[in-house]
Amino acid sequence: MSGPDPANERWRAVLTGQDPNIRGQRGRYKRIPSDPRCKLCNSPFAGIGGWYFRRTGRAPWPRNPRFCTACFLGVERTPGGAEVEIMLLFADVRGSTPLAEQLGAREFSKLMNRFFGVGSHALIDSDGFIEKYVGDEVAGVYLPAWSGTDFASKAFSAALRILRETGNADGSTPWVPVGIGLHYGSAYVGTIGSPDGVADFGVLGDAPNLAARLASTAKAGEILVSEPAAAQIGADADQGEPRELTLKGIAEPVRARAVRA
To answer: How confident is the model at residue 182 (pLDDT cuts 50, 70, 90)?
Structure first.
């Protein structure tokens, strides 16, 4: 019987915050000025230290510049992945097809870029990372080991921020209608694609599918928070209206709470 795959074990160690290389670097790099620095390994991004570390491949990571490329891209280039518990935030523009027809391609692209900017800043500032932009949707992931013990409240705050900054808070007039889905569950996080062709970092499984369905079902100005996500978030999510939803592609009814900003 073959043993565990070393590549997958390395992925699991990084994703759960147990990678010995990163843990060892934290203490060493913390002594080098200056802030801001990578939230995982403490490598500096500014000053002389930042200049040197960027030359060694520790520049800010594009999916979240609060982390460095070396902490993640080293394992991202290694085919494999691991199944871990994550919080997912999917923000979806409601009625994008008629919007595109009404505005035309150029103006619609400007609108979507503005929306993606709001979503990106909300995710990055709350220690999530951008998993992908797809069509009219931005998808973000919160790894508890990376985002901290308050990862669930950070994700919920980011969702509220997206609604407020797009004008979807109660009493506001939205400049783009947005619905959001939040879900907590187990998913495969790793490399996807052809091993001898184009590969990318991604999240796969029932959990991201459910989060995407929640986002596409949410009305403009709503956050649909699944029961597992609400349990992680706590009292703030409990204030939402309870619903039982039948979601396309999901076999069983899904219990969620509808929260407004």
So the answer is: very high
